[in-house]
Amino acid sequence: MGNALLIPRNPHGSLEILQEKWPKIYGRIYRVWVAFQAFIDISSPSLMEEIMSSQKFINKGEVYDPLLPWLGEGLLTAKESKWRKRRRLLTPAFHFQILDNFFDTFNKNADILCQQLHRSLSKEGELNEREIEVFPFLKRCTLDIICEAAMGIQVNAQLEDSEYLNAVQKFSLLLFENFFSVWRLVPRWIFFLTTKGKEYKKSLKVIHDFTSKVITDRKKEIDQEIEMKQTEGKKEFEFESKKRRAFLDLMLIAAKEGADLTDTDIRNEVDTFMFEGHDTTASAAVWFLYCMGTHPEHQ
């Protein structure tokens, strides 16, 4: 089993071992065996920069395969040839000038975040000084932002319970547990007969249903926009380049104008950006707050 039995199956315990304990013992780069697979663990910014900025190491290893039922071949998991083509298509959607147009969205949801944090600390009108886990608050905030800024929809995850967010959390945890368990070694159909296998399929359906509805709704709105413009006397409809366009809009418009994008391709990218756009951003924000909290002289 290699080192697998030394790694806890919960995210907090495993990260403590992999990112804190072992780097102190073995250094910033070391090898771990999980059964017959070798993994190189890196916790050095300079080494990470070499990998992340490389145009050579683009294809992901098979460790990413469990994400394929969820994200398909989106930007995160796509092979090099598809990745380059899709990257060229999608990069303009995240140009700084376009992002500048969404500061009202960022600020509005940041205000709601502050209100939610303050409310969680308040007790009978008096501020109760105690520690709170901020990650769930930040995940809901970043989900609201990515949905509005990139998908053109409002889900109000900070103010209402989000079935999508709950499904993402449950599915992510199942993926993590599965990676360090014996279920990795058995056929998938056997896993799907178990309780956790059924939870896996149920959560995946909720996630795909949600993103499919987002795409369908935006498609209808764009079609209505085209019809309205054409009834105004424009024989050929052209999309205004200066108008604020969400990431999803740009993909749907590109597909209408002949880009090599199927409905499945669009859903894969939406799933990828919905997940990466809220989860990793929330993680970065948590670390920022941690750094500020442990270095008060910089606050």
Automatic annotation (TrEMBL):
Gene Ontology MF terms: heme binding; iron ion binding; monooxygenase activity; oxidoreductase activity, acting on paired donors, with incorporation or reduction of molecular oxygen
Cofactor: heme
UniProt superkingdom: Eukaryota
Pfam family, one: p450
Entry keywords, A to Z: Heme, Iron, Metal-binding, Monooxygenase, Oxidoreductase
InterPro entries, alphabetized: Cyt_P450, Cyt_P450_E_grp-II, Cyt_P450_sf, Cytochrome_P450_Monoox
Gene3D superfamilies listed in its UniProt record: Cytochrome P450 (1.10.630.10)
Family: Belongs to the cytochrome P450 family.
Alphabetized PANTHER family for the sequence: CYTOCHROME P450 FAMILY 4, CYTOCHROME P450, FAMILY 4, SUBFAMILY B, POLYPEPTIDE 7
Protein name (database record): Cytochrome P450
Organism in which the protein naturally occurs: Daphnia pulex
